[in-house]
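tool_log.txt
---
The assistant was asked to compare two proteins side by side. It first ran the structure predictor on the initial sequence, then on the second. Raw inputs and outputs are pasted verbatim so the downstream comparison step can read them without reformatting.
(1)
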Amino acid sequence: MVLAQKSGQVYINEQARKKLMSLWPVAYKSNMKKLIPLFSRQLNNGEIPINGVKVAKGDACTTDIDWEIE
């Protein structure tokens, strides 16, 4: 996993996971349950999953994602 912030800061693997957990303190587990199967399917098909998520300041960053990745 690679997480890149607008500032240019890049987090890789475990650091990316920890940073994402801090950005989604309430919704991390739920969001990962939605994203991991999609990423796995893409990897199984020989694709590299690249997806972006914007994080809003305030309460918005604690909510579940509600979109699908194709």
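(2)
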Amino acid sequence: MKRLFRIRLLLQVGQTLHQIEGTSGGQVSHHRKLTDDERRQIIEAHTRGTSAAALARRFGVSSRTIYNTLIRAKGPCPGPTTTISTRLSARQLAGFQAALARRGITDQPAALRRLMGAADTLLRPADPVVRDHLQAWGALVAAEGAAVNRIARKLNEAKLRGRTMPFTDEDMTTIRLFAAGLVEFAEGFRILWEAQLAEKAREVDNALKGLVIDAPEPKAGSASAPPAASHRWRSAR
């Protein structure tokens, strides 16, 4: 009899908890479908530190619904994790925080995990086309530069021996071609470099997509980072 009484008591307690779970004086609508705007609000609020239980009460759904929303927003469930630590200088930390702030991101660990997850893309070797362009330009500059060096040696030798400077129209043409080639190289390199930076920025933005929130602007004169900081991050093992 005592055992049966305990079983009934446990069932009653479970039913009572089930009824009040995630509510704030009301009944949870377990089957209510969240709107896209509500899902966005849930993700942003959770990023700022609001607990799943508080979100369940606010939106009138179960905690499981909140967790499912967060999991779907983050993609596949991550595997086992491990904690790593690293030391950063004040300059390194400030630079990282400033880069995230320019994108409206405040969750530093999440941003670092995203960047580490995109390492294969962000840290891939240089594009073969870019490498070929640089090698071709380098060879051209070296060849024309060698011709200019020969002219310089010829003029220097004549000066040391007290002879008339053997500077010809052909020498002038060679120097002008070399100067024009340098200008062309600088402009081509600038265009190529800016294109590479733009592509890398798009890759970083794609890796950090979903972490941007409307954060308030930092106040002027706020305290700077300490001289050195040790941070611990959780990443996939």
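---
observation on (2): Strands lie at 81-89, 228-236. The longest helix spans residues 169-207.
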